Each structure stands twice: as C-alpha cells, then as structure tokens.
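hiii so my PI (J.) wants the whole complex modelled not just the main chain, which honestly fair. so below is everything: two entries, each one labled with what it is. i double checked the lines twice but i was tired so who knows lol
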Amino acid sequence: MNGLINRALQGFLMETYGTSVWEAVRRDAQLGFDDFEAMLRYETGITAQVAKAAAKRLDKSPAALLEDVGTFLIAHQKHERLRRLLRFGGNDFREFLFSLEDLPGRARMALPGLDVPEFILAQKSATRFELTVVWRDSQLAPVILGAVRAMADEYGALVLLELVEGDGPDAVMALDLLDNEFAEARSFELGEAAL
Amino acid sequence: MTVHTATEPGLYLSAKALDALLPMHIWLDAEGRVLRVGPTMSKLAEGKTWIGKHFFSLAEIRRPTRIEDVRALHAVSGHRLGLRLSAMPDLQLRGQALSLPDLSGIVIDISFGVSFADAVEQRGLTLSDFSPCDQTVELLYLREAISAVAHESRNLTDRLIASEHAAQTRALTDALTGLANRRALDDLLFKLLHEPAAPFTLIHMDLDFFKQINDELGHAAGDAVLVRVAQVLRDEVREADVAARVGGDEFVIVLRNCDDPMFVERIAERLIDRLEEPIEIGNESCRISASVGSTRSSSYQRPDADQMLRDADLALYASKRAGRGRHSFFSSEMNSGAK
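here's the output for the full assembly
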C-alpha cells in the first residue's frame, strides 16, 4: 500500500505546487525513476525520503506535508474509489472508527498480501479514543492522521486529532470526537459505484 | 413438515425486534395475507402497501417447486426458497419460510442472493438497511474493491506496455536521424530471409565528401547534413521500405518486394540527384554526393544477410572507384576483383 501513498504524495505535489516542483523533488530525492505507481510496493523509507526533499523545498515540516497527503488521499476527486471503500466502514464517523480494525481484513479480501496498517482502537471515555497504528513504516503515521481527519470531514464529524507519545514503537493518536453529527456528511450511495 | 409447536422452548419477539433482526422479512397470517413487512423489504415495495394483500399475488416461489398456496408453503418450512417479487421481477431472490406455532402464520425471510448489487442500486438502499449480520454490504464492498484494483491494474499495464513500446522503438532507432539502426536492419533481414517473403533489394550507400564537411565546418554541421540525408531517404523510398543508418555516413536501404533492376536504378539515381542538391547550413552551402551499390536477393540460391551486405558493399566500392556519385549493381566479377 505504500505505492498508493507514494503515488498520492507525487499527485499532491504535482496538483498543488506544479509539475516542476515534483520534478525538482524527484531529483533532490534521487529517485531514479519518473513516476510512482499505486499498485507497486516500494522499499520502506522512500516515502520519508521524498517527503523530506519536498518539505525542504517547500519550507514545511515533513509531518505537515505527509498529513496533507493523507487528506489528499481521501478528499481529492482522483481518489473517489478509495473514499467510497472507506465509507463502507459505517453510517457515521463513530462507526467508521470502530470499523478501522476490520480494514486490513477487508482490504486483503480484495487484494491478498496487501500491506495495510493494522489499527487498534481504545475508547478512553465517551468521546475520547486512542488509535494505535501498527505499520512497518511508522514514519508514515502523519499520512494516516491526515486521512482520518479527512474522513471526519467526510462524515461531517467534529474531531480533535493529534499524534501522541506512545509506549511502544507504534504511532498513537489521540482523538476527541466533539460532535459526531456536526455537519452534513458528503453524499454516499451504496449503489452508485462507477465500476 | 417442520412445525414449531407451543410445547417447544420458545422465544417471544416484538414486531420491532423482528424488524431489527430480519429487516427483509414478510410475515403472513394463517390465510397467507401479509401482516407485516420488514423495513428494508418495504423499501422494495416502493411506497405501495403490502399489508392485507395475499402473499402469492406479490411473489412467485419457483424453488424447490412452484408454490402457490399456504399449505404448500408450510410443507417447505425451513427449506431454501428461490423466489421473485412482482415489484422487482428481474431479481432472483433467496429466502426461507418458517411456519409459526399451530400454523398460525408464516414468517418468510428474504435475501438478495447474487442480485444484491442490482437491488441496492434500484432501490437506493443504504448501510442501515442491512442487518449488521448480513454480508451483503461486505459483498458490495468487495465488488467495488475488486473493481478498483482491476482498474488500477489495467492502467498500470497500459502504462507499462506504452513505456516498453517506447523503449523498444528507441532500441531500434538511430538517435540522430530517426532512421532504423543496425540492430533494426539485422532484425529485418533475418525476418525477410527466414520467413516466406517476396524477393527484395539491398542498397548500400556511402556519402561522398562528407568527411570534408565534418572537418571544415565541425560535427554540428555534419550532423545537420546527416539529418537532411535521412529526410531525403524517407522521402524517396516507399512506405514499406526501410532505410537504416549503419555507420557514420553509411546507410542501407531495403527495398521490399523489389526485384526489378530498372526500378532500383531509378531509385538510386533519384537519391543521388537529390543528395547532390546543395544543403544550406548557416551561411555555408554544402555539397555532398553518394556512392551506391545494390544486390538483389533473387540472384542467390540461398540468400544470406552477411553475404548480401558484403556484395552490396563491393558494388558500392565499384561506384567509388568509377568516380563516385553513381550506382552499381553487384556482379560476381566484383568478387574476383576484390580477391
């Protein structure tokens, strides 16, 4: 799945800052090829390497940049198929949060062997959750953070979300679900898939 | 017949609980009239009320056999049913009927089976229309996920094929002139000599006075001349013929399906004439010419690529020796002359 994220990183840079910026970043990061492919698997660390090069050029922090990539991954029209698949997780954002633990199993039903993060959700109080992301590339946690935040927007939920210090090597984010029905959800019809 | 009697340990379910557990049920009274319809099932009715209607006017049970009355329906209680609803006649549905105690009624639970996608689309069903235990949503998810993966795979394959094609073209093309290169020529000759093909003519051409241009005006001017020569070759040969640059200022032309010496002679003369036209490079007007030799595949018992290239080369040198700017056909005397 890091192919998907790498491709989104490239797409985000090209759409937001232009092809020339992407070309420059590609050179800075010494990528050695022209484009990322969503379906391919890349070595761990390559995303962080490209993000670092892009962040330097754009004068941003790599984490902020990766978070934007996570948002782009959900919110951009290009990724409509992915957005729809995630909406199958539930009727509202709370249900979606609980469905994250099923996500790897679901993803692998479609594509066996897919490298997807594992999620562990712990409810700390009525509105506070802790989401642990277990993935081989823990540097990519900001992408997940951006994607979860975009899903909250998608469902019209109001959340506060931040990465916190965890006990182990895995990324942990604290999530306050302030209002599950803060705004209108983006439209999602089960039967309107463009197959 | 499976009949549930009041003496069995039983379970009382409110109608609401039944709705939640089996959102696609239809509950019939003892005469087979509809008493209640689950919330998702009533979406299939599209606003029309089914309550009080006779079940067999709303649905057609086709399996295990055609069933048209309540008695027969009791008889298949607990079995798998195949049925259609007159409200959605194109969908093949699956179901199970269960007789209620003392044959006081029947509850039929219905599922979409493999018609799930059409049903969801036609009736605009949502996630909450399905019981959390129903796998229909999982099936819809899987259908979309697989389609998304297939879409990406197709795109990836298309891109890979396009880039492989581009690489292949690059590998067979002379970078400066865009003509075929030596490798492409070898491939073509192999094909022409190893697959059934019409006789062809091989022309070997070497530019005259090219070295002077390179020496006096520099390599950039030399390159410009070569590009111009390539253009002349492209203009003068037919679509199916192939012109290749095989050395600095050496070219080979394969005239396919050509065994006519007159035709070869005409093409060679026209090439030489056009190449002798002055070429303007910057402020300089450059003049070159070409020496040309040719050989025909039909003049060999067993034509061989190396042999033909050698012979065309011998004919080319005969043209050079005879004063350049001309064309010669290969003849066997040239062989003895070379030795």
